[in-house]
Amino acid sequence: MTSEQFRQFARYNRWANARLYAAALDLSEISYRLHIGVFFGNLHGTLNHLLLTDRLWLKRLTGEGDHPKQLNAILYEDRAELTRARIAEDERLIEVVEKLDDTTLKGLHSYRTTSGMPKSQVLSDILMHIFNHQTHHRGQAHACLSILTGSEPPSLDLLVFQRGGTAPDLEKLLRSTYPPR
Q1: What is the DSSP string of 52-110?
Q2: Cβ–Cβ contacts within 10 Å for residue 77, how many?
Q3: Could you tell me the pTM of the whole model?
Q4: Backbone phi, then psi, for 99, in 5-degree steps?
Q5: Which of 2, 84, 115, 144 is the most buried (most CB within 10 A)?
Q6: Where are the domains of the chain?
Q7: pLDDT score, position 95
């Protein structure tokens, strides 16, 4: 894959997360936290996992930020705070990917696993994993929304993004629904 394709995936990632989070913010607190049998229990656990793993990988890639130790940790109990953190992490991921060129993507990148084991992997393979992982768990979150609302959640299809589909302004939504404390 090329650096431009990864840039597109980073922008798509932000777009899809905005659509998903807007729908999640619209749920009642009970529905949002209802255990429905997905891998991380509920929508809140799944969204926390996605943020956590992005932080973990960005720490591995940049040396900056948090490196959570448990993949099921709840980073934010409050969903508004979680949303604000998601917005920031999506921007951070875009910034990191924007700096990469095709030559850098072909190189090896060394890091440590959560258990401390040293690993080296081609950087483009790491990025493919990051974006594939996001898609996998966003699919679980999307299924949660279908189950919880009984209706079709917003489309997260890449083609919808590529065709100019809109995403909500999460910061504006948060200001109107969940003002800062």
Answers
A1: HHHHHHHHHHHS-S---S-TT--S-SSHHHHHHHHHHHHHHHHHHHHT--HHHHHSEEE
A2: 10
A3: 0.93
A4: -80, -10
A5: 144
A6: 3-177
A7: 98
